[in-house]
Amino acid sequence: MSEVAPHVLVVDDDPDVALLVRMMLERRGGCSVDVAEDGETALANATARTPDVVVTDIEMPGISGLELIEQLRARVPDVPVVVMTAHVSVDYAVSALRAQADEFLTKPLDATRLVETVTRLAAENRARRDARPHREVVLAIGAHPDDVELGAGATLAAHAAAGDAITILTLTRGARGGDADSRQDESLAAAEMLGARLFLKDLVDTEIPSGGPTVRLIEEVVREVEPTIVYTHSIHDRHQDHRAVSEATVVATRRVATVACYQSPSATIDYRPTKFVRVEQFLERKLELLRCFDSQTASRDYLDPDFVSATARYWTRFGGGTAVEPLEVVRESSEPARAFEHHRLET
């Protein structure tokens, strides 16, 4: 089994039972455990941070355990689910199995059986995942040098650690914000640090169109790279270039399975992320990437390491851990991004 602790999501509206299960799994199974008190919270947690195993009660207010399984199968179809209940009737067991539960445990729980069941399912799940011949091809698109690194630098570092192919497309050389040659050199240095391929285009800074010319530039790179995941600006942004790039990207990447929008310092209050990527293992790498852009650090407060770290810390209120990068998902394939899995296991 992997040396990294299995990540388990425990769902039970009884806090005493949830605490007991958590203690059993952490102390006897060496698991990393999140707890949700209801189905809605569990779905949000499982979507943001895919667990290795879900352990859920059946009878809960709102979404029942069986309904939760059905919705989990739609969102994270491969996750193993263990159902636990105080009712030992055949009807309950049959209902749980029909709802595609992987195991059925009765309360009071036998600690040995619980730990053995969860760790076995976690190991089997990881083995299946590792056996898949899958490598993401990532395209990160920004209007200006440092946009991509600031918005999704830690997530890109996670992709790099997972062995994914990374391409950065920057549509201007940032002449309005500094010396274009210096910013080009900085972009090259950051791309080299990530092991990424860099396309640096020559659209006019602050005058990027959202239509034809920009769409065609992005389409050219998409045809060459054939990405499976695209990261770009959000439409919810005060900067006109960011909005234009977001609109053009959505059109140019219409055949790409997964497209998500990172947060810029100029994002508005309408920026509403739905994916929260834990990046504590990669935050320092992000800060190193941003240090490549030293021509900007003196005049851009948002590049200050404390500001970047504080922003990552803020989003942990939704994603957990100690550092998170938010993503506003435009569309997403059924398969989770390999990098999300990688840095989830790392953390």
The residue-averaged pLDDT reads 87
Query: How many beta-strand runs?
Result: 12
Task: Give the strand order, joined by hyphens, for the main sheet.
Answer: 8-7-6-9-10-12-11
Multimeric status of the protein? single chain
Strand content is: 15-25%
Largest sheet: 7 strands, mixed
List SSEs in N-to-C order: EHEHEHEHEHEHEHEHEHEEHHHHEH
How widely separated are the two ends?
16 Å
Report on the structure:
The chain is of the alpha/beta class. It has helices at residues 15-29, 39-48, 65-75, 90-98, 111-131, 147-161, 180-194, 212-225, 240-252, 283-291, 294-297, 305-314, 316-319, 338-346, and strands at residues 7-11, 32-36, 53-57, 81-85, 103-106, 137-142, 165-170, 197-200, 229-232, 258-262, 275-278, 324-331. The two termini are 16 Å apart. The relative contact order is 0.12.
Q: What tags apply to this protein structure?
A:
347 residues; seven-stranded mixed beta sheet; single chain; alpha/beta; disordered C terminus; 46% helix
Question: Helix and strand layout, with pairings?
Answer:
Elements: E1 7-11, H1 15-29, E2 32-36, H2 39-48, E3 53-57, H3 65-75, E4 81-85, H4 90-98, E5 103-106, H5 111-131, E6 137-142, H6 147-161, E7 165-170, H7 180-194, E8 197-200, H8 212-225, E9 229-232, H9 240-252, E10 258-262, E11 275-278, H10 283-291, H11 294-297, H12 305-314, H13 316-319, E12 324-331, H14 338-346
Helix pairs in contact: 1-5, 2-3, 6-10, 6-14, 8-9
